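Hey all, sorry for the wall of text incoming. These are the two entities for the joint prediction.
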Amino acid sequence: MSESRVHFYQVGSFAVGNRLLADADRTVQASPERTNSLDSGHRACQGCGEALGARYALDAAMRATGGQLVAVNATGCLEVFSTPFPETSWRIAWLHSLFGNAPAVATGVAAAMRAKGRHDVRVVGQAGDGGTVDIGFGTLSGMFERNDDVLFICYDNEGYMNTGVQRSAATPPAARTATSEALGADPGNVFGQGKDLPRLAMAHDIPYVATATVADLHDLERKVERAMTFRGARYLHVLVPCPLGWGAASADTVRLARLAAESGFFPVFEAEHGVVTGVRRIRRRVGVEEYLRPQRRFAHLFAGEGRPDLVARLQAIADANVERYGLAPEEE
Amino acid sequence: MDRPFAITLPVGSSRANHTGSWRVERPVYVDRLPPCNDACPAGENIQRWLYHAESGDYETAWRTLVEENPLPAIMGRVCFHPCESACNRVRVDEAVGINAVERFLGDTAIAHGWRLPEPGPDTGHRVLVVGAGPAGLSATYHLRRAGHAVTLVDGAARLGGMMRYGIPAYRLPRAVLDAEIERVLEMGVEVVCDRSVGDVAAARDEFGAEAVFLAVGAQLGRRVSIPAGDSAKVIDAVTFLHRVAEDDPPLLGRRVVVYGGGDTALDAARTARRLGATDATIVYRRNRAKMPAHAEEVEQALGEGVTVRWLSTIERFEGERLLIEKMALNAAGFPEPTGELEELDADALVLALGQDTDLSLLEGSAVRVEDGVVPVGESMMTDAPGVFAGGDVAPSDRTATVAVGHGKRAAHGIDAYLTGRDFSRPARHPLATFERLNTWYYADAPRTERPELERIRRQTNFEEVVGGLTEDNALFEARRCLSCGNCFECDNCFGVCPDNAVIKLGGAERYAFDYDYCKGCGICVAECPCGAIEMVPERI
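and here's what came out:
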């Protein structure tokens, strides 16, 4: 990746901050002056990855735009836990309409700003994976196709968590959800392509597409900033573990995101105008099992005799990602 | 009621919603004892001085270091650094080069003329310190800081004890030794050299002291009887090294054999090489793995052309020939004679078979001696009230660093004794184990090795063998510290909290939790690199 690593020991450039770094080299999150776009008192579960990812992304966007930002939110966890009327946790200009129309509303806001001559105001649309890959996909594809000046961010927790953990088109194969029970010969979600939205977005040839996780803050912030240097449609897909839906310990949110990337199961890369321009290479490669085991939604793969055949198929998906994007560590 | 259309309630921030009430466990910041500090015989707060060195503030780093140990430039050369063996970074890549950074700080302090802290306000008490080696100097320093007057008596012409007369100059240059001793004396110490103390009680009265610290070291080379002809040249290693230090080296010839397997044996062999011996051979009765000498020194000696006859004992020394018997290790690992004999040409034999301490000054006193050492209590006090002992005199590993630690503890013990307080050692935090770390956040960074003098040069002179770090290297090395168990302000907890429930206090004040909003998810604990946060059950 083009980013330059700052060689400061003892924490190198992996931690959020470092007392020895110049302010300009620290993350947005290291600063007490950060926007805190999503404020305390929100009703997300303990250890919510989405709450964390949304603050990371929007605080970075606020810095990149000098605070001239409007966020449009689809229905979903993020909207429900942040704005139970009359409370709000948002400290930015924020608006919510429906589940499926967030990209269209964001398009409208961008058009309104253009009509008002406010070229300085930038628009972010955001949704969970349900609102992005399933329900909002039509309007999102339209937004991409028209190249509207919106950065759309998907916080992917791989299911409909707010309504009781139902399967989405972003749920990984073999994962147990309320609508893909761990029963029968093929327990959990079906093996199939699902909807790989970063690649679908790339197929629209929009200026910028990137993936990130809540485990690599430097990478995520840099991508938000990079996205804000483009005009036109941009897409950022952030993996945000869900302790409730994944059946994981609340303390493991960041660790699971890290294991998803380090196993190759979730590829972290970026693309411009349909072409991959950079990948975040794996640093300490692990097998998918290390990623799957702490999650109860995959418990049926390891109970009793276990299902090594299914684990192997999931490993094959990770290996294919490593191959496709060239994620292997430099030593290999 | 001036509200927008269809709005019935006033809009408010979610901050009214104190989500901290959901919590069943709360995170708390803790300080744990880093393994380096735990292992340091001198009780240095290594991690703390590395912390200051990391930011390039070498003076504060040095000042933190000398809180515990007034001899960093010496320790940075002669200490066998148990801290590095204990270092958690060993399990990531390699141990932090603590000893090298310590030396860098010590040398920097000498170069800048930094002075030790001022002595404490005068207490009116006087203490007699017998022996000016590492234990005696360390005790003197800490006693002066407590405000007690000190009379420092030594039997040799110059101060330093075994650091001067036992450790060769290629390991510890005399300019460094002199500088650090001088700095302790600057605190105001009455010094009496060339004075052997014959009777503890009499000396105490003579110098008007209320307490005595005995630190005379182990300066008697142990002799064994080896049948030797009249012309055979036999000398013990302590005497040999002592005479070299006094610039009066004995003539040993070209083929020198050293008998023994400790650090002193290696020092003697390496010194013989430098004095012109073409063959310096160590004869040791066990194998390399069982050798008590430190591996680093063995490595350096072999590199200088010293050879070793493992599993061998000396039977006889006649004329220019040594008769050596081969040994074999038995099942229990002890060497047993095999009856197989070999000959070895030798001009001189140096005996390095251990050292004893000269405790004749205790004859007739109330101080108990057991197995050639003086048993001491927790405060380093002997059976006789007011008489303390440390360093090689007390049961210990007999290293300079242990002696420095003894000196410090004895000073605190003496201070308690003089002021009528009970002595107690400070409480220790629980250990910061490797399992508590999240090593993901530490960058990979191999250790910076100190340059070693070209082998050929060091065979012939007494120049220092191991060089120092440059400032860049020292900084890099200091920054490799993982800061085990103690917050170093990486902002991780502040960043990873999904509820913004961590308050960054800034400066060196670290962070605090905002328990109004902390839901107790534990991400901060999991993602803290150094294990400085713990979850504790909430009282319900």
